[in-house]
Specification:
Elements: H1 13-17, H2 21-28, H3 35-44, H4 50-58, H5 71-74, E1 83-87, H6 95-102, H7 105-108, E2 113-117, H8 120-128, E3 134-137, H9 139-147, E4 152-157, E5 165-168, E6 182-185, H10 191-202, E7 211-214, H11 218-227, E8 232-235, H12 239-245, E9 249-253, E10 263-267, H13 271-294, H14 296-307, H15 312-325, H16 335-345, H17 364-370
Length: about 375
Amino acid sequence: MNQSGKEAPPRTGRTAIRLSYGLRASVFLRHRLIGNALLLIGMAVRMLFGAEASAASLQSLPSSMTQAEVTLAQASPRASRPLRVAYLSTSATMASLWMAKEIGGFAKEGVEVEVLSMASSVAIPALIANEIDAVQVSAAPVITASLRGHDVVFVAGLLNTMIWDFYARPELKSPEQLKGKLVGTDRPATPVAYGTLVALKKMGLTPKDVQLFPLGSSAQVVAALHSGQIIGGLGAPPASFVLERAGFRSMVNLLDVPYQNVGIVVRRSRMDELGSRLVPLLRSVRAGIDRYYSDKPFAMKVIGKYTKEADADVLDKTYEFYRRAGFRRELVISEPGVQGILDFLSETIPEAKKAAPGQFFDDRFVRQVNSVK
C-alpha cells in the first residue's frame, strides 16, 4: 500500500523475479511487528479466496529460480519456534484451520502452532524460503510451482469442491441470452478462468459464444457485475449472497464439480523434519472440522470473528454453504479435481500434460491420522 492509501499494483515480470526469496523472507521476519497491517490486507481481500489470489501470484515465479536464491533464508534457525501455518484470506474456505485454533486443538495435541494471516503474494515464496512451515492454499498455485521445479506438496486436502455460482444480470432468463455478451473472467491458468470455462460448458456454451473479459479475481468480477460493466461472471460466498439480494440470477452452480480447493501444503524436503508436528496439526484440524459440523452456533461465531462479518443472515448462509460443500474429515485430496486443473494448465504449461494427480499429494501423515478414528 502506498503513502496515498491506495493499494500498489503487484510486481510482475523480471522485477518480481529479481526479488530473491532471501529478501522476501527478510521482509517476512518482520511479520509479527506488522501483524495488524497484514490482517487488514487479508480483510481487504476477503472475497479473494486463497485459490484465486495465490494462483495469480504464482504466475510471476520463474522456472529458472535456483536453490542459491533461497539459501540465505534457509539459514535462519527454526528448531525452537512454533510451527508456523499461514492462511491466505478471510473467506470461510479457511474455517477448518480457524476452528482447530479456536477449540484449543493445538494445545490438546501438544503442538505449538502460530497461525498467521498473510498476503497471498508472499505465501509460496515464504514457504519455499522456510519462513513458514505450512500454508493453507488451493491447488492451482501449488501445481504450478511444482511443475516449475519447486518442492511443494499437499499433505492434506480440506475442501474438495468448487464454491462458485455463475451469476447473470436480472434481466437474463437463460444461458442462451449470454451469447455475444461480456463475461468477466481472470487471466489464463487461474482458478477463476478455469471455473468460468467449467461454468460455460455446464451451461452448454463455449468460450467462443461469449466475449471473455479478463478482470481479475472473483472480487473484481463481482464488482463489475454490480457496476454493469459485464453481463455475467462467477461469485462465491459471501459475495454471492449480496448478488442475490441485488437480484442477480444464478445460471449454474458448480458445487458438484470435482476440484481441489484448499489443503495443507509443505515443502517435500522438510517432511521428515516436520513430521512429528504435522501429525498432531492434522489431528487438530480434523477435530476442528468435527466441531464445525456438530456446533453451528460456535462455528458461526468463529466465521464472524475471522471474516469480520456481523450480519447474522450472511453468517448463517455462509455456514450452511460450507456445510454442504463439505470440509473433508478424511483429509484427502480430490484426484479428479487435480486432474481437471492439470488439463486446464496444460494449455499454458506443457509439463502438466505428463503429470499425474498423485505426484502433488503425499498421504503419509494423513494415513497416520486416519489410523485412529
